[in-house]
Write a structure and sequence with these properties.
42% helix, 261 residues, 7-stranded mixed beta sheet
């Protein structure tokens, strides 16, 4: 959907699990010193000002990274939070900026973003990094045209807006194609968790496609609050085994954090 801009939601509670697990996977894979092809189907603008107008309009970061960053951070979250601190809250790193910082010099990055404003801001955020290509086309179709080079480890991160049920339908159709197209790629999907748990059947479907791991956590919700979102989850296929262990530790740390806040 071209109406969605992540700046209104950047740094929120959903971002905590999503970005902490993604950061761990990128760091872990980078340690192998193989060339990496990193792809995002829905990249956003790359960097977010959490003091800016968009972020302050909803104040979602207040219950997310801003609630965490100045407190005693749970151990599984510390490395990622330290990374965010190093950038500052006026330059909060979205996933493209995270990958740009974490992945090695011999990596290649391809970012897809259809929203014209987000595309323009992503170009500014990435700058003249010749490792990166930014494409203003459909990320699902565009990504499937790509293939890793010899020895490259491909990583594809999928983070759609889920503004309508069509987003889930599109991901349901695309995921098996991607798993078949890239038999050795690491595929990472973000899923929202809803109050009515409508995502359970979809999660079961994703789990049936291929073995992988799922990490998710829910926060307490107000029954009177009309917001449907109630949690956050990552589905990761073919990630290194140690990333599953870390993913469970991150979900447990956040579940405890939210339950006691």
């Amino acid at each position: 959907m071209l109406s969605y801009q992540h700046g209104f939601h950047a740094g929120n509670r959903a971002d905590l699990l999503k970005h902490a697990i993604l950061y761990d996977i990128l760091k872990t894979v980078s340690a192998d010193q193989r060339p990496i092809l990193y792809v995002e189907t829905h990249a956003g603008r790359g960097v977010y000002d959490l003091t800016g107008e968009q972020s302050r309009k909803g104040g979602e970061a207040d219950e997310g990274i801003l609630d965490l960053i100045d407190k005693k951070v749970p151990r599984p979250m510390r490395e990622w939070v330290d990374f965010v601190r190093s950038k500052g809250i006026s330059a909060y790193p979205g996933s493209p900026a995270m990958a740009q910082s974490v992945l090695p010099a011999n990596s290649r990055h391809v970012f897809f973003e259809k929203h014209p404003t987000e595309f323009a801001e992503l170009q500014k955020a990435i700058g003249d990094d010749d490792r990166c290509q930014i494409k203003r086309v459909d990320g699902y179709a565009g990504a499937l045209k790509l293939a890793p080079r010899a020895r490259e480890q491909m990583i594809c991160f999928v983070d759609p807006s889920y503004e309508t049920d069509r987003d889930i339908e599109a991901l349901a159709m695309w995921t098996p194609k991607a798993l078949k197209r890239w038999p050795n790629a690491i595929l990472i999907l973000w899923l929202p968790l809803f109050k009515d748990q409508r995502e359970i059947e979809f999660g079961e479907y994703l789990s049936s496609l291929e073995s992988g791991f799922i990490s998710g956590a829910r926060w307490p919700t107000d029954p009177m609050d009309e917001t449907a979102l109630a949690g956050t989850a990552i589905v990761a296929y073919r990630a290194p085994p140690e990333c599953e262990t870390k993913g469970v530790a991150i979900q447990d740390a956040l579940q405890s954090w939210w339950s006691n806040s």
